[in-house]
Amino acid sequence: MSVRYRLNRLFGVSGHCFDVAIDHGFFNEHRFLQGIEDLPAAVETIVAAGPDAIQLTVGQAELLQRVPGKHKPALVLRTDVANCYGSELPSHLFSKLIDAPVEQAVRLDAACVVVNLLLLPGQPDLHAQCIANICALKPVCERYGMPLMVEPLVMQANSKAGGYMVDGDLSKIVALVRQARELGADLIKADPCDDARQYHEVVRAAGGPVLVRGGGKADEREIFARTVELMKQGAKGIVYGRNVIQHPKPGAITRAFMAIVHEGAGVDEAMRVLGGK
């Protein structure tokens, strides 16, 4: 069974995709809940804005899938939960798959599953757990024709950055992205690098579609400019979370990102869509 059938639901006629990540509550961090305290209302707002996909957990996927009609965003199902995002790391780090993740994704009518490939300084056991998770998922994804999105995350030392901060080192990102591809990723959700003009190197290493994650929250013009450049460098789309759900106008900024991803809009045009000047 080909994964292409479900990938077509993500990428559509433009060949690009904007996936809004609203799976942050999975990770047991209070600060991640800003903007999604009322998750049903947040999902309703994003659905109305019409992105290509929404990334949710097994416990909240029904908020999207109960929406009637055939034009709602596709579901990207988060399959793993980790505990490495706090300002202080716990004594034991883990990245654990939910039970029967692909079968649950099929029952929920997901278009894709996503799993982390974490690289934290001095934490090789966590990296090994992530590799084991991907190896367990891949053959089951193949059996069911379920696209596998791998999320290679190169993170700074916790003592330096205080949790969940992108490293930005191009060589580290390229190497981890390539590992994700070698492990069987059908598409990759990758870190941005420090200089977006070099992102074509990440795309080349992936050997397949790359969606760039947003990382930390940024100024509107800054994140629009970075997104425009990343698309120019060959990215097939974006997976943004906090830059959408923590924005005062999440629906409007979703439409602005859609204009960049699908219509090739520039920064000024995106600002007009958002309602700026």
- CATH-level-4 superfamily name: Aldolase class I
- From the spread of the alpha carbons, the general shape counts as globular
* End-to-end distance: 48 Å
Give the tally of structural domains: 1
From the helix content, strand content and strand pairing, which structural class follows?
alpha/beta
Uncertain stretches: none
Fraction of residues in β-strands: 15-25%
CATH topology: TIM Barrel
Strand order of the largest sheet: 1-2-3-6-7-8-9-10
The biggest sheet amounts to: 8 strands, parallel, barrel
- CATH-defined architecture: Alpha-Beta Barrel
Instruction: Indicate the percent of residues in helices.
Output: 40-55%
Q: In CATH, what is the class?
A: Alpha Beta
What is the count of DSSP helices, taking H or I runs of 4+ residues? 12
Order of helices and strands: HEHEHEEEHEHEHHEHEHEHHH
Overall pLDDT score: 93
Query: What is the number of E strands?
Result: 10
Rg over C-alpha atoms, rounded to the nearest angstrom: 17 Å
